[in-house]
Structure formats: structure tokens, C-alpha cells
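User: Fold this; C-alpha cells only.

Assistant: Input:
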Amino acid sequence: MNIEPNLNQCRAFVLFGATGDLAKRMLWPSLYALDCDGLLSTEFQLIGAATSQLSAAEFLAKVKESIQTSANKELYNDAAFAGFANRISYVTIDIKAPGGLEPLRAALAVNTNIPDERGTIFYLSTGPQLFGSICLGLRDLGIVNKASRIVVEKPIGTNTETARTTNEAIGTAFDENQVFRIDHYLGKESVQNLMALRFANSIFEPLWNANAIEQVQITVAETVGVDGRWAFYDSTGALRDMVQSHLLQLLCLVAMEPPASFTPSAVRNEKVKVLWSLKPITGTDVNVNTVRGQYAAGFSGGKAVVGYHDETGANKTGGLESDCETFIAIKAEIDNWRWAGVPFYLRTGKRMQERMSEIVIQFKPAPHNIFADIGATLQPNTLLIKLQPDELITLTLMHKKPGVNETRLGEVGLNLSVGEAFGTSRRRIAYERMLLDVLRGNSALFVRRDEVEASWKWIDGIIDGWRTTGHQAKPYSAGSWGPTAAIALTERHGHSWHE
């Protein structure tokens, strides 16, 4: 990551929700890593803002612990942290109270050597219901200018209407070019390598269409359950939580047309065209093209685990059990010239057999098998892009097995490991790249307003179809690959899930 950020317009970084889970696991460790790399100027302020009543020392102790227990713990040393801590301050705020953001004004005025025309980056690691109040409060404080930027986490709304309302609230204080809607999946090296693979290598792009590709699969599988977040998850579900954001963003990168340049507008223009081209799944189509599931008791990680309805915090008021989906599989289609007739299979779920995120591009089989007379079977070429737990790209080709007595064919994988190829010293947290892009003002890998609303429109059609047809979530055992109906979803089209 040898890109110098343009900090000429940045005076400070304010993190709302500074004591929350995301801040602890990802944001403070990522900011610390950028500081260790010399990518934060000595003048740059970091301000934590939350409702907790904490002293400066108590807050710094929490930040220190977050770094020491994170993926970046090997970077920790006392001297580096001391320098990092010198740029951090903490303020207690009350978002809902009049004047509750006033402490920020004083915190931002600490360093008078920074010109006032410099902007502040505001990172909202809070619930989306607070976005509007925070934006209005920042505007009324008079601490937002044209050089300021705001970063917001998903979910942006729960449907098209609420997404519009949330975007309007953000727009009361910030212009669209100041808004960075973050999806950390787009910060993963292998996801960015997908762009390079397609658009920097002439061997792939001529084949990247319905003429050569048979099917595409995108899977994000988790072995964990709802992890004490039952109330939130039950009001959201896998479709809203994962498909609307992560999976559709990955689909856009796979399916987009070549942008004119690697600039924010050019890249995002092509992504939103994909979303506009998604064939609606509505009405009774949901029974054919979607499968909902909900995990029951089973085994995960070698131990017995409870089902969704027996998780901590589960609401059983009145004896009614929730129909919230913890698993979703979808057969999606893109109605344009490049992808007509190619199924895009999307799958995500909790309490799955294995933790993995991957994209599978399966090419069409060779039109004729000249080796059939000697009993050789040809398998279609497959491009596998693994996002987690390991980041790897593998192209599977047919190859002759060694031997002189007969011709035998087998599959051989050509592997690209970025760490091995380029000697990467450590594996980066995806948020490091995303935060660096915010500092640089580069929004190419962030989600634009029309993308958010276009994806919600497609999701709304599925939810309405479920409601009108009474589509039910099917049970699956924890530790499995989901309901058996998900297998049938692909098999009736002559395909099978890559596992």
C-alpha cells in the first residue's frame, strides 16, 4: 500500500461509536496501522465520540486493548502506540439532546495550527437510525464545510423508501461527493484483484460474457450464529443484511462493463447499470428462484449448538416463532447483451459448514472432446476467487497427467497468491484500504446513492413476493450447507454448488 494520501484537506477524523464493536475490532487497529506506515500526518487529529462517560486514560486503555487483540497485534509496541495516542482525544456526546454534539467543537479547536478551511472526516459507526440526527447536529454546529467527508456503515435503510429517507438526511449536511458509503468487502485484496484480472489482462475480457461463461456463483458462508444480536438480526434477516450490500456489490464487480477509467464516477456508473439490469424476482417467481432457510440445532466447530429460536435474546412472546431467514439462496439473471442467459447464484447463511467467501466463474465446456475415445472426461475451466479466510485466485485447467502408457487427463489449478507473488509482509485489514481511500478522497470503491436505492428496489420485489405467496423459511441443521432446496435451485439448471 504505497500510495501517499492527500491530507491537504483533512484536519481530523471523528469516530462516532468510538467504543463500539466495529471500532474495537476494525477501525482503531486500522488507523493504528496507517499511522505505523507513516500515512497520517503529524498534525492529524483522531477524536473518539460516544455516549460512555470515560476519562481520556480510560478511553486510551480501550484503544490499546483493541489493537493488542486485533489482527494487527504484531504491529504493537509501546513507542508506536505512544505516538498514536498523542493524536487521540475523547468526547462524551448525547446525540438526542439539544447541543449534545457541542463537545466536538472544542475538541476540533485544539490544534490551532491547522487552517480552518481544512475539512473533518466524520465516521458514523452507529445505528442508521442516528444518521439523520448526527448530520443535522453537525450542520447546526457549523463544523462541516466543503472539504469535509462523511463515512457511513450499512445498512442504509431497510427498503427503498427508508434508504431514500436516510440519504436525504445525510444530504442535509453533505453533498453526494462528500459521502462515503462503506462496504468493507470492496477493500479486500482479492476483490480489487478481480478488477485488475478483468481489465488489465487481455486474455480474460474477450471471454467475460455469455458466449464463454456458463454460470457464476457468489457465496458468503459463516459458521457463527447471531451471536447475541438476535433482536437486530430478527428485524433484518440474511437478504437485507448480506445480499443487499455485500453480495450485490460483488455481483456488480463481476458483471460490470469496462469503465472508461478507474475514476469514482466511471466505476460507479457501470456498477449501477448492472443493478438496473437485474431481472426482477417478484410474485410467484420467488418460489422458483429463491430459497429461504433458518438454522436449527446441530454441530458447529465440533460442538453442539442451539437453533435460531433458542439463541440468547430470542423473543418467544405469545409462543410464536420467527420466520426470519438466516440463509438465502437466489438464482439471479442480468438482462443485458453481455450476460443474457447466464445464471448468477447467490448464497449466504449463518451456522454453515465452513466459513468462506468466494466467487466462482465457471466457463462453458469445450465444444468437442477429442479424448473421448480413450475414456477421458473434460471438466469445464473454473476461475475461483477466494475472499476469506484465505485470499487466493485459482484458474483450473485440464492437463495431461504424467505417464507414458496412456493419456490421462486431470484438473490442475494455476494459483495466484498475492502474498507469495509480491512478498507481502502482512495481511491487511480491508478497512485499512477503505480508510486510506477516504483520506485520499477516492470514492471509487464506495457505494453511490443511486446504487443503494437500485439494490433496495430489487430486494423489495423479493420481499413483497415472499409476503404475497407466504414463502416460508426452511429449516437446516447447524453445520450444514443450508436447506436441501438450495441444492435443487442449482441442479434443476444442470449445475451444483462449488464446495
